[in-house]
Write a structure and sequence with these properties.
This protein has 307 residues and is of the alpha/beta class. Helices cover 26% and strands 27% of the residues. It has two domains: 104 residues, Rossmann fold (3-Layer(aba) Sandwich); 181 residues, Nucleoside phosphorylase domain (Rossmann fold), CATH 3.40.50. It has seven helices and 16 strands. A hairpin with a 2-residue loop joins strand 5 and strand 6. The protein starts with a strand and ends in a 19-residue tail after the last helix. The protein binds 1-O-phosphono-alpha-D-ribofuranose and uracil. The site of 1-O-phosphono-alpha-D-ribofuranose (R1P) has 10 residues, from strand 7.
Length: 307
């Protein structure tokens, strides 16, 4: 940590940089495309008209801000897991004026034959699967849930309008794709599940650990039979948007990497075709979202008058 921070409740430095993402007002746009992987973020940033700002924080958050089709957007890589999404949503909320539209573009495991590796899932909502620490601890504090190794939450809806736009731009991009490598289809209308772990909470068996997770996917599907995707951040994004008092709108899509039905995995040459195409389609959807952009005076994307 290099800067002097004030306010233990919401630490910021003297210039207004937030603690972990290390951006200040005017460096993040009202439209945000977020991914887990830094290389994915940099590859998508190649589609921008130009880049006005780039910063990689000490805590591993990458922010790239510029314009796409002349509209200010930020592409932000956050790493993996629910807490990273919490940092993203809260710290960007603190430095952006007005409403925010966030689309996450991740990778996932698929629970449906309809979405093999190479396809893209656009969930209409999501929920969380959490390892129940009380089940595994020496002396449980809570009665009633101590015999459940995993807790399945209720659902949070994605923004319906943004989700529809995303499905449209993705479907169009897939239809226009003509290379030999087969990708698609786009699968919408189902749910995403965020596991709190890539391993135990997503039902991966690991003999090195006590996990009691052979039933976790079936248990989740019993409550949420339309679950298509398993990953780690998108449901948290929907949850935080739901709790943002109406100021954050969110949608998400994920490229299917892991086939959890037949136990397969996507090949690198398919990712090489799929990822840039989906990234561009997400940008196309993001700039169509109707949202009032903040006053650009003093921002990194401010258009300077030629003198
Ligand atoms: C696990 O491999 C990671 O991949 C998925 C999961 O949500 C988790 O973050 O998304 P990203 O590819 O965006 O990181
Ligand atoms: N990301 C996940 O979280 N799970 C998978 O199975 C694949 C990608």
């Amino acid at each position: 940590m290099k800067e002097t921070l004030t306010n233990a409740n919401f630490p910021q430095d003297a210039e207004g940089h937030v603690y972990h993402i290390h951006v200040k007002r005017g460096q993040v746009a009202n439209r945000i495309l977020t991914v887990g992987d830094h290389l994915r973020a940099r590859a998508i940033a190649k589609h921008l008209d130009h880049i006005d700002f780039e910063h990689s924080s000490q805590r591993g958050f990458l922010t790239i801000t510029g314009r796409y089709k002349d509209i200010p957007v930020s592409i932000m890589a956050i790493g993996m897991g629910n807490p990273m999404m919490d940092f993203l949503v809260r710290e960007t909320r603190a430095v952006v004026d007005g409403d925010i539209a966030i689309i996450r573009f991740g990778s996932c495991g698929s629970l449906t034959e309809r979405a093999p590796p190479g396809s893209v899932i656009v969930p209409k909502g999501g929920y969380c699967i959490r390892r129940n620490i009380d089940y595994f601890c020496d002396t449980p504090l809570h009665s009633g849930i101590q015999d459940m190794p995993y807790l399945i939450s209720g659902t949070f809806a994605a923004d319906p309008g943004m989700t529809e736009l995303l499905e449209q731009t993705l479907t169009k991009a897939m239809a226009e794709h003509q290379e030999d490598i087969k990708i698609g289809p786009v699968i919408g209308g189902g749910l995403n599940a965020d596991g709190c772990s890539f391993y135990s909470a997503q039902g991966r068996l690991d003999p090195q650990f006590w996990d009691d997770n052979t039933q976790v996917i079936d248990t989740a599907l019993a409550s949420h039979p339309t679950t298509d995707a398993l990953e780690m951040e998108t449901s948290m994004l929907f949850h935080l948007a739901h709790c943002s008092k109406g100021t954050v709108r969110a949608a998400g899509c994920m490229q299917v990497f892991a086939d959890r039905v037949h136990n397969g995995f996507i090949r690198p040459e398919v990712v090489a075709v799929l990822e840039p195409l989906v990234g561009k389609a997400v940008l196309d959807a993001l700039v169509l979202v109707e949202i009032e952009a903040m006053n650009e005076v003093g921002t990194v994307w401010e258009k300077k008058m030629k003198v």
